[in-house]
Amino acid sequence: MIIRTLLISSLLSISFARVSQAEPERIPLQMRENIRVVYQVSDDKPHEGVNKGLFYARKLIATYQEQEIAADQVHLHLVYHSSAIVALVNEDARKRLDADPVKNPNTAILKELLKSGVQIEICESTMRQKGVNASDLLPGVNMVVGAFPRLIDLQLQGYAYIKFE
Predict the structure, then answer these.
(1) Does any domain span residue 28?
(2) Is 99 contained in some domain?
(3) pLDDT at 12
(4) Angle at CA of residue 38, ends 35 and 40, nearest 5°
(5) Does residue 4 have a pLDDT over 80?
(6) Which residue in 2, 6, 43, 77 is deepest, having the highest Cβ count within 10 Å?
């Protein structure tokens, strides 16, 4: 009985050693067209010097490009509301909103994303609450009637939902 137990233990440890030495499986992306994603961005938390939502949008676009997925097959919307809207406004509005820094660090990445076809949207309800006007928005930012109705609308259209806080 002891010999049998030792033999089984030895065989199991050899099997586990082989499994642990094997390369992990790399799972490929299955969806390669009509990829629909919406980010909800409700906070102006920075990541590597820019708004977190914008940073990860650029990263997502780059990942799909690396996988040779055509840019016209990636439909990405970023819906901004609450305190996150300071990421999308000019210096005058950032001063009024006590944003730090006053000079918007997101201007370059915003332009880059817009060129890639990303839709950047801001909640009109939040704008009213914070005293932000359409003329305060950075070029290319679109207004939506409300963040939550827009998020619902996009999800009902089949968009995958990711929330950034």
Answers:
(1) no
(2) yes
(3) 54
(4) 165
(5) no
(6) 77
